[in-house]
Design a protein that fits this description.
Layout (H helix, E strand, L loop, with lengths): L5 E10 L5 H10 L4 E5 L5 H6 L1 H18 L14 H25 L3 E4 L1 E6 L2 E5 L7 E11 L3 E3 L12 E2 L1 H5 L7 E5 L3 H12 L3 E6 L10 H13 L3 E4 L2 E7 L4 E6 L5 E6 L1 E4 L3 E3 L32 E3 L10 H15 L13 E3 L4 E6 L2 H6 L4 E7 L4 H6 L5 E7 L5 E8 L2 H14 L3 H6 L9 H10 L10
Parallel strand pairs: 1-2, 1-6, 2-3, 6-17, 8-15, 9-10, 9-15, 10-11
Antiparallel strand pairs: 4-5, 5-6, 7-16, 12-13, 13-14, 18-19, 19-22, 20-21, 21-22
Helix pairs in contact: 1-8, 3-4, 3-6
The chain binds flavin-adenine dinucleotide.
């Protein structure tokens, strides 16, 4: 039986329950707005179900095994065995706890939750298809809409994910039985994080990348320690090659790649992980029906208040463009909800940090030395190597450094690049410094707990002004 079309109304319709959408919905409800959140899949979106959280769970679990098995220097002798099925069960538990929490938080804040796929009818109406035979659809009239439909992995022609040996990141994160060998196409952050996970599971990992190095967009000295560790883990890299075709063999696949001169190479692998980036999900939503403009790549452009070209429709998160990161999505979600509630909110793009959870980790925020110059400032740069940090040495992880970039005149902190242990945590202090308009002196004169990795941020700030105690000032 097909259920008839009913029409309801809401002040704010949020489409997509990822970190952009659910955060926007909760804040809108907190602001007293009647809010409806619709998702066609799962609470928490890509981040909680198929992205940040499951990948970080597997990274932590394989780190535990790898570190325990490589600590003889510390007098620890162990030969850890990974039971992938149990690791998956644990990872699923983490995901379930968080997605369940999102649902509870939404309900507790009074957000109306609807399962289904939303499509715009016009700039004040959306149709929600509930999916499955006979479940019907409903129409929702809204005063404001927030589009938070996220992104999906880019498919390489010929390497579509419906073929079993070809994996998306989502397939790789659900693996019950690791392959003996894995070919990874793409050395961006997702390719590098997952290559490290599989290498630490004992899988033979080969990476092919069309550019001439890993982690495009990061400075050479920042990505170098990650490449060095990946080499030590036995990951094999082939740069300047594009995957062109694959064929099934008895035991797996043989993948052919081509370099820019047309020279071909072949690689045998049991599975192929394609991780060449992500693209926005805006097609199924039919934003054009509401008058919302979409660019040729599917992104919806917004102003610094997350507003699209249509006054009452906002877009947040991956669908609204780079950087495609969960915390950027959430911040935009909050801005959209505040603006709808009449608050003067706006997103400050200056201090959005980014982290890569490789071994060692990378984290950056704000400007590099070069970008500071391009922006018309004279940079004042300080660095502190983790090999001079008592805490880093005492954890056995002393690769990398903290670099802090300020402008010379008044000393305002403009950026930071960190590669090393807990870089993803340490970057928060630098982001706060930029956000608050702190100077190098503010960071340097803040008393930091000893012995901690955070002291490296303080020492880098001191180094910029030739005041570092535990490294030579140059
Ligand atoms: C393997 C991996 C690791 C990652 N690691 C990190 C990390 O460490 N840190 C980080 O910051 N980011 C990370 N990311 C990126 C992060 O997941 C995204 O930036 C984030 O999820 C974007 O949030 P969003 O709300 O914009 O969209 P999403 O999380 O993609 O959510 C969009 C939601 O919209 C729903 N939807 C789409 N269309 C419709 C429709 N028409 N009707 C109803 N519902 C719809 C979808 O079902 C989905 O639930 C990772 C991504 C991957 C794949």
């Amino acid at each position: 039986m097909v259920v008839g079309d009913v029409t309801t109304g809401t002040e704010v319709l949020v489409i997509g329950a990822g970190p952009g959408g659910y955060v926007a919905a909760i804040r809108a409800a907190q602001n007293g707005l009647d809010t409806t959140l619709v998702d066609r899949d799962a609470y928490g979106g890509t981040c909680l179900n198929y992205g940040c959280i499951p990948s970080k769970a597997l990274i932590s679990a394989t780190d535990v095994a790898h570190d325990a098995g490589n600590a003889t220097e510390m007098g620890v002798h162990a030969d850890p065995v990974i039971h992938t099925d149990e690791m998956q069960e644990w990872k699923e538990g983490v995901v379930d706890q968080l997605t369940g929490g999102v649902e509870k938080l939404c309900k507790a804040n009074g957000v109306n939750l609807i399962e289904g796929e939303a499509t715009f009818v016009d700039d004040s109406t959306a149709r929600i298809a509930h999916g499955g035979d006979g479940q019907g659809s409903e129409s929702i009239e809204f005063e404001h809409a927030i589009i938070a439909t996220g992104s999906r992995p880019i498919q390489v022609p010929g390497f579509e994910f419906e073929h079993d040996p070809i994996w998306s990141s989502r397939d790789a994160l659900d693996v019950e039985e690791p392959p003996e060998d894995l070919l990874v196409v793409g050395a961006g952050y997702i390719g590098m994080e997952l290559s490290t996970v599989f290498a630490k599971m004992g899988v033979d990992v080969t990476v092919v990348e069309m550019l001439d190095g890993i982690l495009p967009g990061y400075e050479d000295d920042v990505s170098r320690p990650v490449k060095k560790r990946a080499d030590e883990l036995g990951i094999e890299f082939n740069f300047g090659e594009v995957a062109s075709e694959w064929e099934e063999t008895g035991e797996g696949v043989v993948v052919t790649t081509e370099d820019e001169d047309g020279n071909e190479s072949t690689y045998d692998a049991q599975k192929v992980l394609v991780a060449v980036g992500r693209q926005p999900v805006s097609d199924s939503l039919d934003p054009e029906a509401a008058g919302v403009e979409v660019d040729e790549n599917g992104f919806i452009h917004t102003d610094d208040q997350a507003r699209t070209n249509v006054d009452n429709i906002f877009a947040v998160g991956d669908v609204a463009g780079e950087p495609m990161l969960a915390h950027k999505a959430s911040k935009e979600g909050i801005v959209a909800a505040e603006v709808i509630a009449g608050e003067p909110a706006a997103l400050d793009q200056q201090a959005i940090p980014a982290a890569v959870f490789t071994d060692p980790e990378i984290a950056t925020v704000g400007m590099t030395d070069e970008e500071t110059e391009e922006a018309g400032f004279t940079p004042n740069v300080g660095e502190f190597p983790f090999r001079a940090s008592g805490r880093a040495l005492s954890t056995g992880e002393s690769e990398g450094f903290v670099r802090i970039v300020a402008e010379e005149e008044a000393g305002f902190v403009l950026g930071a690049q960190i590669v090393g242990p807990e870089a993803s945590e340490l970057i928060a202090e630098c982001a706060l410094a930029i956000e608050m308009g702190a100077t190098l002196e503010d960071v340097a004169s803040t008393v930091h707990t000893h012995p901690t990795l955070a002291e490296a941020v303080m020492e880098a700030a001191e180094n910029a002004d030739d005041q570092a105690i535990h490294t030579l000032n140059r």
